[in-house]
Amino acid sequence: MVTSLFKHDRIRTTDKKAKELRGWADHLITLAKRGDLHARRQALSIIREKKVVHKLFEEAPERFSAISGGYTRIVKLGHRPGDAAPVSLIELLAADKKSRKKKKKKEERIEKAAGPMAIAEKESDETSAAAPASDAPKDQEASQDEATDRPEA
Fold first, then answer.
1. Which residue stretches of the chain are H helix?
2. For 2-94, CATH number?
3. CA-CA 20 to 30 A from 54: which of 7, 29, 44, 100?
């Protein structure tokens, strides 16, 4: 079952099996993050497919480097129609998505805490940077030309 989880990144199973599988998956990802030969041999004793172990050891250090535990998520799906057993979806987390969300939320909190003055200053900086300095004299010249082109009554 652990082999299927690492092969497909998510599987649908009963709640009890998913909870048991979580411990095995976390242990194997910890071994993969370690990455030495002994850890690889320990993983091969649990996962019998060499391709799956190779994939795990290639992806895990970069995928889970920011996380120190809790590499899986269990989502309860309901009950199975045949025997009404509780069914869950167990999946591996993608760490990079989680850290991006935190950064966005942190920036929003900083902007809210700074208040409307900071937002107004930020907008004024953007508008002044967008309009080049050479445009201001041209606007003044254009208004002067319009004033001279008007016939006097």
1. 2-8, 15-34, 37-46, 50-63, 95-114, 116-130, 135-149
2. 3.90.1030.10
3. 100
Q: Which tokens go with 68? A: 């120190």
17: nearest Cα among 71, 81, 85, 69: 85
Burial of 18 (0-12, 13-18, 19+ CB in 10 A): buried
- For the cut 90, the answer to whether the pLDDT of residue 16 exceeds it is yes
Q: Give 42-63 pLDDT, tens digit per residue.
A: 999 999 999 999 999 999 999 9
Token digits of residue 100: 């991006």
Return the pLDDT at 105. Answer: 72
Amino acid, single-letter form, for residue 152: E
